[in-house]
Structures are given as C-alpha cells and as structure tokens.
Write a structure and sequence with these properties.
single chain, 463 residues, alpha/beta, 7-stranded mixed β-sheet, 4-stranded antiparallel β-sheet, 16 helices, 11 strands, binds pyridoxal-5'-phosphate
Length: 463
Amino acid sequence: MIPLLHDYLHRSINEIRNWQNKWFTFSDDESLNVDPEKLESTFQEFISRLQGSYPFFHPSYIGQMLKPPHPIAMLAYFTAMQTNPNNHALDGGPSTSEMEKEAVAEIARMFGYNEYLGHLTSSGTIANLEALWIARELHPEKSIAFSEQEHYTHRRMCDVIRTKHVEIPADTSGVLDVGALRERLYSEDIGTVVVTLGTTALGAVEPLHEIMKLRSEFNFRIHVDAAYGGFFNLLAHEENPIIDALPFSCLSQCDSIVIDPHKHGLQPYGCGCILFRDPSVGRFYKHDSPYTYFTSKELHLGEISLECSRAGASAAALWFTLKCIPLKADEGLGAILRQCRLAALEWCDLIRTSSEMYLVVEPMVDIVAFFPRASEMRASTISHLSEKLFDRAMNDPLSPKYLSTLRLKTSILRARYPEIVEDSETTTVLRCVLMKPEHRRYIKKFHHELEEMIQELKKNVNL
Ligand SMILES: *Cc1c(COP(=O)(O)O)cnc(C)c1O
C-alpha cells in the first residue's frame, strides 16, 4: 500500500499543478515565505512529537476505536485538499458536492432508503445532534428516550437543544431493556427513541426489531445511532449471517440513521453522516423552500446541513474509497468487516475454553470484553487483575499489546457469573476493539500471550 501512496502522491501533486497552470503563472507573495531552517527544525520536532502516539495502525493496538484511514482515502483527501473545496455551497465545492451526494446515496442504498435527505457531517456527534434537533422540531413537547448505555453525547445534546430526555435502563447484555422502555412509554410522552447498533462500550446491537413492534403500539419516532455498527449491515443480508441480522433488517423503516465513515468506513476523522427517511424534514433547515427543492438535482448541501463550512476533501475521500472498496457483502467493505467479525468470534471460542479468562458478554460485532479468572471471584479482585493486565500488556518489552479497560456495573457480570462477589458496585474488565482485518491473523498469538501474563500476575499476587 505504501508504494501505491508514494507513486500516486507524486502524481497527485503534478496533476493538480497541471490544472493550476491553466491560469497565468504567478509567484507567491514574499510574505508567504518560510525560512528553510525554521521549516527543517520544525519538521524534525513535528515528526518526533507525532511519534509520541500509540501505534493505531498496528494489529497489536486493540484499545479503542482507532485505526488509520485506508491509503486511498488519504490519497483522495490530500489530492482534493490541494484545491480546498468547501461543501457548504455548490460553488464552494462544485465537484466534491457531487461526490458527496453520490457517496451518501451509496450509504442510503445500503440501508434500503429510497427517498431520503442526507449529508456528511464533521462527526457522529454533530450527525446525532442534527437527528435530535429534528426530533425536537417535530415533537417540541415530547421527550427523547435512550438507554443508559448510549453514547454520552446524546445526553449532552439534549441539554444543548433543551429537550427533556428519559434514560431507560440497560439489560444484562448492555442494551436498552425493551420491557423498561414499554413501561416508560406508558408513563411518559416520548416522541423519539434512540436505538444504538454497536454501542461504544461493548459493541452491543440493541433489539431494534423489538422496539419496532412497540412503535406500532405507541407511535414514536426511531433514531438509530449506528455511528460504530452501521457498516456491519453489509454482513446482515446473507443466508447464514455471522451477525444477528434481525435488528439490521429494520433499518429502512427507521426515521433517521447516523453512521460514521471515520470509524468503520476507512476514512480520516471529520466524516460522519446523517440520513432522514422523510426528505421533507429539510424544511427545518431552510424554512422558505418548497419540499421538492430538497430532492432536486440542484440540492444545495449547505442548506440542509447544520454546519456551514465542511471539508470537500472529506467527501472526496469517501467517494474515492467507495468506488474502489464498494459497500458489498462478499467483497469491498464487507470482506474487510468479515475479517474483523471473525477475529472476534474466533477469539471468543478461545476465551470460552480458557482457564485464565472469562467472557463478559457474547460480542455482537467486533468488540470483545473479558476479565481474568481468579479462584476468588470478588469484583475488586477482578478489577485489580484487569488493571494489572492492562499495564503489563502495554509495557511488554517484546510484544506490547494495547487494550483498554472498561468499568461495568457488577450486576452485568453477575448475571452471567453469579459466583462473583459484589464487593464493589462496578468492576473493571478489559475491552478489545478488533477493527482492523489483520487482527484475525494474530488473535491466537495474543490470546496465548495474555493467558501467560494472567498466570504470571496471579502468581505475583497469590491468587
Ligand atoms: C463514536 C460514536 C459516537 C460519536 O461519534 P463521533 O464521530 O466520535 O463524534 C456516537 N455514537 C456512537 C455509538 C459512537 O460509537
């Protein structure tokens, strides 16, 4: 991939220069000059400071939802950035606005949306804000409900738009408890329910199909936060899917969907996406435009977006990526996600028979959570061992592994392992995000190395 980037980056610079040479040549104003020595020393300092980062690119990094963009996305982003298009307006980014519409159409098609209103945003948070804002505009008096496991930004954004929210407890698998939602629908005036496909903590997929059934009884809107899990939809439509297909099968009937191409869509940061099933919600963005305007070919993205300036380069990168790595199940992005999902399933098989580890929940996408197994199953002991293992793995001199820790209610663990003594309300476990296809090749190795580390840690603390 790197030689590819090398060759194409040169071509990218040359091609854009050729295009610029269509206008009369001029020399840069002297005020723009940079002292070459300053440039060189700053470059050196810059490179050395960047190296203070964790190796997100490497299979041994399984800590957070972080990985580099695909090289073709970097190439397209850099190439477009040289012309610095702004997708706020058609004349700010004439070519990249077209690319945005085409890329968003691909995503809408993946979800089974025929008519829709949608655009890219700078993040999943902003995309969710737009969805909640429209929810409030449609039902100003009603509240917005979500589970306590939902991304923390939903709570914050309800404050921003000054809308009441109702928090629904999560069940023992970490997803919105449908029974509890039903009760709250009786007692509260809920206008919109937020359902997450792929929670940030455990990658849990909430039972959208069951929540849909409640909708016919109580008549509320559904907003799906699929920022993390949305692209797993590609794996849901085959004969024997390797994920639970039911929640994904209802996506086309939901009122709005958020998906983050900068999470599982191989994009650099700055690329979220919001889709509404009813294009007429465009009227809230621009009050004096007729409905037809919002589906016309001349759609002005700046008039259906909460943000003003948006990087056209972001749209270019996504467009380019989807051309080369299409939204298909057996090839393109589906083939990449399949490796991630299989890595999670294969690791779980190993954990299930391990004498050193316990699985927290069955993984629903590609996030695996486990905790070290001790003879004495006290919540505080588990937390202590988890934290030790986290440090030990990251500081291994030969083969460091970067995991993350996650604090869960001890009751979630006790549902599966009643022998755990609840001497603390929360328990720290280890969380591993297997979002790079290469993980699959190394899972066995990591598993055995982590098992050895746990044995060694237990010896040191006499457990
Ligand atoms: C990451 C994430 C968000 C927030 O998106 P950003 O792009 O980080 O702003 C919201 N919801 C879920 C489920 C996420 O995983």
